[in-house]
């Protein structure tokens, strides 16, 4: 029995393997790439807002703790310290009409500036708490610049004027915004009270 070559070739053509298709990366449109990023950016302001709320809440809790635990009391002052008592900020230059000293004729014209303590809320105060007592000293707290101007008018007569202004430090701005004494004295007093004041002032 004979087989035809043609039939064998025909059978082989049916079994011929197909060529594998080329692999292609999926196409990603720009929108699909940007959308996840936009979603993250949309949540960013919310997270920032929540962070600010939590920070404000923790600050209010801390202030409430200080107000309930610590009590401010005026410190006694001696007669020699009365010259360093707090004065109000005038904000503008005023002319001095009378003086109690004699100024030398050859005293040069110019400005004399003194930088000293000047409590924003009255006299220096101590803080009393369960931790003990701590007291303000003269180099602690708010400061003020006092300027004394030595000039002469057109007739050559001596003219004196005065101006003062608070040093607007970060602690000064915070206490002025809150409208009350906020920072605790942390230099002189009981060691436990000083440590507590130092830690709370840094919070």
TrEMBL record:
Select a single GO molecular function from the record's annotations and give it.
Answer: oxidoreductase activity, acting on single donors with incorporation of molecular oxygen, incorporation of two atoms of oxygen
Superkingdom of origin organism: Eukaryota
Q: Name one Pfam family in it.
A: RPE65
Q: Which UniProt keywords apply?
A: Dioxygenase, Iron, Metal-binding, Oxidoreductase
- On whether Magnesium is a keyword of this UniProt record, the answer is no
Instruction: State the needed cofactors, names only.
Output: Fe(2+)
Q: State the InterPro entries in the record.
A: Carotenoid_Oase (IPR004294)
* Entry annotated with the keyword DNA damage: no
Family, per entry: Belongs to the carotenoid oxygenase family.
- Full protein name: Uncharacterized protein
- Organism of origin: Amborella trichopoda
Q: What is the lineage of its organism?
A: Eukaryota, Viridiplantae, Streptophyta, Embryophyta, Tracheophyta
């Amino acid at each position: 029995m004979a087989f035809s070559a043609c039939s064998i070739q025909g059978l082989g053509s049916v079994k011929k393997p197909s060529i594998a298709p080329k692999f292609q990366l999926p196409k990603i449109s720009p929108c699909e790439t940007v959308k996840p990023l936009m979603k993250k950016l949309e949540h960013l302001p919310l997270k920032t807002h929540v962070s600010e709320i939590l920070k404000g809440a923790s600050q209010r809790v801390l202030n409430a703790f200080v107000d309930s635990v610590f009590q401010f009391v005026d410190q006694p002052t001696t007669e020699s310290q009365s010259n360093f008592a707090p004065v109000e900020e005038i904000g503008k230059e005023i002319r001095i009409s009378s003086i109690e000293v004699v100024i030398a004729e050859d005293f040069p014209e110019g400005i004399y500036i003194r930088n000293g303590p000047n409590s924003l809320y009255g006299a220096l105060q101590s803080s009393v708490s369960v931790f003990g007592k701590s007291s303000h000293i003269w180099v602690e707290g708010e400061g003020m610049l006092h300027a004394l101007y030595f000039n002469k008018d057109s007739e050559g007569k001596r003219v004196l004027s005065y101006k003062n202004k608070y040093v607007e430090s970060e602690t000064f701005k915070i206490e002025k915004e809150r409208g009350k004494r906020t920072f605790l004295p942390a230099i002189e007093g009981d060691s436990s009270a000083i440590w507590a004041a130092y830690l709370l002032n840094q919070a």
